[in-house]
Target: Ribose-5-phosphate isomerase A
Amino acid sequence: MNPKKLTGEKAAEFISDGMIIGLGTGSTAYYAIKKVGEMVRDGLNVKAVPTSKETAELALEEGIELIELSQVEKLDLTIDGADEVDPDFNLIKGGGGALLREKIVAAATEKLIIIVDESKLVDKLGDFLLPVEVTPFSWQYTQKMINKMGGSSEIRKKDGEIFVTDNDNYILDCDFGKIEKPEKLTIDLNTIPGVVENGIFAKMAEVVVVGHNDGKIEV
Ligand code: 5RP
Model:
């Protein structure tokens, strides 16, 4: 059985009636959203904040009521995927380009549930290139400053064109080698002018649901 589907469905079990939830982005979060849609059609009452335009569209198709983050004090829980997870539950996110809204929603959430298949588990973050969202204005200057911190980076492209995020920004995919101090790197990166946000989610996840290829799920 598909481990992404298993984890998405398992995470949906954490949702109870009346909750305000955050909905992540990506091919694993997709299965959680589909499951929430099924639960809503069976009578579950939830309101959701989506982390991308793609997720908003899917959630609406599924009949899930959407709200703005500004309309609520906090979110009860958020279910989202990740590109890498270390043993301390530090994450790299943003492979799908939604890291800014994902981080804002994660910060507003009481319980962040991360759903991954076993291929995402690593001893140390850094094999997956770290996505950093930057302003289009003078992004090459921002790139130089990032590279001075010991990284190298490439502007993300899609179909030969620069990839534009839901927030009209660009993404630099950065190679810092193995990331020894994720908390320090996330702070350092965000002090560079032009950096909007980076894809390190340091100690934000409370629960990690791992789907194994043999069909087992670990929470
Ligand atoms: C999008 C993300 C995704 O959660 C991450 O890229 C994992 O995606 P997938 O479940 O498709 O592997 O951070 O910005």
